Amino acid sequence: MKLMGAITDVPGIRVGHVQKSDDGWLSGVTVVLPPTGTVGSVDVQGGGPATHETDALEPTTLVSEVNAVVLTGGSAYGLASASGAQRWCEENGRGFAVPGGVVPIVPAAAIFDLGRGGDFTARPTPDMGYAAAAAAAVERDGHDVGRGNVGAGTGALIGRIYKGGVGTASIVLENGVVVGALAVVNALGLPTVEHSVLEESVVQPGAPLNTTLVVVATNAFLDVAECKRTASASHAGIARALSPSHTLADGDTVFCLATGALAVDRSDEPARQLSLITLQSAAADVVRFAILDGVATAEAVHTAAGDYGVFGAV
Asked: Looking at the 3D structure of the chain, how many domains does it have?
């Protein structure tokens, strides 16, 4: 397998960020915009999630296609930004066809960053969700993805003290399947290196103000149930990257999107199982890489300003 750079290494996946960091703001929105026909599901394992339309992604429900995924700051208030992304999708004919028009399927999840810029009421709006979707749409295929304190990661923290942020990574498997991930790291826990927790003592008790959000994407053909299982398996990457993870104080949520461009080996049942296990194992790895990328990128910005970072004093 080959390690690459971003979720946008999955053909057709685009990412848009919008953020504000002045006048009391420190928050933003990230939209992952997949190509038409993309199938998706989600798995929530954190104890304090703030989510929208996740029930619609269950394998037993009517709709399998996902038109956009919104990651946002602002806790539950910030979920309002999903309506803006939904409006953009409707204007562009993306959605589940119904008499008279379409109903876009736009699930969302939020991190807690309320008040981190000084104004508790400065939180993402529908207009910001619309702008982030529009920003994603104009990007070229395979574009670079903003990392660190951008989009939904603008006000992100780890350990409630140090900078978190947006990270991304991807892997190409031997059969040509690409698995990419984008993470917004706002975790209670801290990153691990060789299974050792860095500065564990800085994990402070307090109100539940944390979450790690992830979108995993692949060009493989998966059905909704297989996307669900891939999202579930991807949570292992969160546990490998952060300690502790999946706590009552985190809303850890993983979305999985499958564009369906490349068939996997389903020639018989053992081949199908091997194909899926290999893909899902890679998904867990790439989630870990994306989380550590988000922390490292935000750390670089933080330490460049002469601050004390999670990896030590500068």
From this structure: 1
- What CATH number does residue 239 fall under? 3.60.70.12
Residue 304 is predicted with a pLDDT of 47
Tokens 């979450």 -> residue: 211
The structure tokens listed for 54 are 């996740």
From the list 176, 44, 178, 162, the residue with the least C-alpha distance to 109 is 44
User: Per-residue pLDDT averaged across 12-27, rounded?
Assistant: 97
70-106 tens-digit pLDDT: 999 999 999 999 999 999 999 999 999 999 999 999 9
Q: Closest Cα partner for 13 from 151, 166, 220, 161?
A: 220
**Band of residue 204 on the pLDDT scale cut at 50, 70, 90:** low
The residue assigned the tokens 């199908």 is: 272
- Strand 27-33 to strand 14-20: parallel, antiparallel, or no bridges (unpaired)? antiparallel
Q: Which domain range does residue 209 map to?
A: 2-304
264 in a structural domain: yes
Give, to the nearest 10 degrees, the angle between helix 224-241 and helix 269-304: 40
Domain-located, residue 268? yes
Is residue 161 scored above 90 in pLDDT? no
Q: Cβ atoms within 10 A of the Cβ of 91, count? A: 12
Could you tell me the two tokens for 119?
């104004």
| pTM of the shown model | 0.91
